[in-house]
Task: structure prediction
Amino acid sequence: MPTFIGFNTINQNKKFTLVDFDLIKIDLLNAFNIRQGELPGRPGYGTIIWNYLFENQTTETQAAIVKEIQRVCGGDPRIYVSGIQIFPQDNGILLQLGIAVVPSTQAQQLNIFFNGQQRSASYV
Amino acid sequence: MATTSRQTAIFGVEDWKKIYQSYQEADFQSYDFETLRKSFVDYLRIYYPETFNDYIESSEFIALLDVMAFMGQSLAFRTDLNTRENYLDTAERRDSVVKLANLVSYTPKRNTEASGFLKVFSISTTENITDYNGINLANLTINWADPTNLNWQEQFTTILNASLINTQKFGNPGNDQVILGVDTQEYTINLVPGFLPVIPYTATIDTVNMPFEVVNSTSVGETYVYEPPPLTNGQFNILFRNDQQGYLSDNTGFFFLFKQGVLQNQDFNLPERITNRAVAVNIEGINNTDIWLYQLDNLGNISNYWQQVQSVYAAAIEQLAPNTNNIYSVTSRTNDQITLNFGDGIFSTIPVGTFRKTFAPATV
Result:
């Protein structure tokens, strides 16, 4: 019996139900893909991480990115962030996130690439 | 029990109560985004706890609910607004009120131009006219109630009589009636051929320079002074009003009717016989009274005057007389624009040909 049951259409054809860690991962990716002000009726929701993408990757910028990632991840009570590493790339930034699911012992390292050209984040 | 199920079966299709019972947890009074969203989520929590529990904001399904809630709010707002605008009690937009009023055959009043009487305080002529004493009055200025001129009244009326048509002299008016206790006599000035009896002038009102026009006036057939249709070669009346308070009274003397604004003409052509035709005049601020419609002949001269009525279908029997069929009504639109409405060929003539509409937009 899964703990978390949700809905997802990304890369799905017939079955749109996602459960547990897969669901948490896709929700996290959604959270990183929603820019602030994009959602109807919720102008405060979303991330400003995309604003830092073309900034010089100084210590201050990276600190701001880490802070923003912690804020976004903090919006999901099901996950615990155990580690954040940022690697500037040619067209964006690569993010390595250590994630643990709070009510279980499941943990995984996620690699998320913020593509500045396509303006989307995806798992790599 | 038996009665209830029988009635439910009979009126099964209309049994809204049953439908409401099926959705008894649905909040049908939710109209705004937050309430709608909460209603959706509550509904999911109650009815689908085992198939969905991903209520985090980044969930795709919640995003879809957001969109639906946003659409629901927009639709509810529009529906509410449209419903409110469809009742006279609750409509707020002037456009809606005007249309609703037109629906019940009431034409809302448009703006009313400033109008009144201009009193003639002095008069002069270049014509060689002699008064009772044989004094040539040419190029003399005679003032009304001039205390320094014992013959002012005789000289004033002598000059004025010289300007009237042959059949009228002071004391023998073209029309005479008492209006609001003031005896009002109409005298027609003899004009040169081809003259349109509308004389424009400007006056400064509260530091604003505004256009006015001296117009023809009459009270024939009515109990008030009004402006008849302005026509080239038409009459141009001066009024003598006497309130029995003496010559120095404001309401005693010779007067012209004046109106604020400038008359405009627009010609339009209606080549085909089309019933119930509506001609829009898309000029804002057209005042409530000054609308006239003329039919033109091939040379562009006025051949017929069309009469404005409240409704082309009102008092239809009276309108069956052949000479009263050239009628139209006026509908008010937003910002005091108007539409000229013509009839169907039975109760009134279908307009065909070239027409000239004359109207006065507001000047403020």
Q: What stands out?
A: Chain A touches chain B at residues 4-10, 17, 23, 26-28, 30-31, 34, 39-42, 45, 75-78 (CB under 8 Å). The radius of gyration of chain A is 15 Å. The longest strand of chain A covers residues 79-88.
